[in-house]
Design goal:
222 residues, mainly alpha, 0% strand
Length: 222
């Protein structure tokens, strides 16, 4: 499954992409070897991450130049707040961790670095800059979910995998791909890859991918 030609180009020119989507944490989700303590630690940090990530997508609405850009960004905010965060709350509640405890989670440095990098890209640049840093998380989880759904050998983390492999989430990834393609073409032109800005957008995407790897590393270190 592809999520748009701009994302595909950024992905294909980011050597670390495979280290992110096939990380040891991801493999542990698929074969059930990921320790439960590590998974819950990750969920607590990811809950905090998703709050900032939702703010970044809300910022995308203010950076939009068309109603369609606003609509697609708003739909992503809705999915983050009402689906992904809800999954974290439900899973942690079963482990005796309530939402107040989740909200009070102290951010790890890896979390802080990633979320503030994304928000800085949005505040200092335009929508294309912001989307280049948002894409690795949205699309990467879609790719991971789809891959694990067909390769998993254990159902321990089937609920988590199911969220990102779902028809709804895969459609979200395709919608975001359309948003990225349109936003880049609108701001740079149809031959965006020939623009001087292309290298900086590619670099933003690559840095966000590295920060995703750091987030998985953090997840393995409760």
């Amino acid at each position: 499954m592809t999520y748009g030609h701009t994302f595909q180009a950024w992905r294909d020119n980011t050597p670390a992409w495979g280290l992110y989507t096939r990380h040891r944490f991801v493999q542990g989700l698929g074969d059930g070897t990921l320790p439960r303590a590590a998974f819950l630690h990750y969920l607590k940090q990811d809950y905090v991450f998703l709050i900032h990530f939702s703010r970044a997508w809300a910022l995308a609405i203010t950076k939009a130049e068309t109603v369609e850009e606003m609509r697609l960004a708003a739909g992503t905010v809705h999915g983050l707040i009402n689906e992904e965060i809800a999954l974290h709350i439900k899973t942690c509640a079963r482990a005796g961790i309530d939402e107040a405890t989740l909200y009070a989670t102290q951010e790890r440095q890896e979390n802080l670095a990633y979320t503030r990098y994304v928000l800085d890209a949005g505040h200092s640049g335009d929508l294309a800059d912001l989307l280049a840093t948002l894409a690795p998380c949205v699309m990467g989880y879609g790719e991971i979910g789809a891959h694990l759904a067909t390769t998993k050998t254990c159902d321990t983390y089937a609920e988590w995998i199911g969220i990102y492999a779902s028809v709804e989430y895969q459609q979200l990834c395709q919608d975001v791909g359309v948003l990225i393609d349109g936003a880049v073409a609108r701001r740079i032109g149809d031959r965006a890859d020939a623009s001087p800005r292309w290298a900086s957008l590619q670099a933003r995407f690559a840095m966000a991918t590295q920060l995703e790897i750091g987030f998985w590393d953090m997840g393995l270190d409760p």
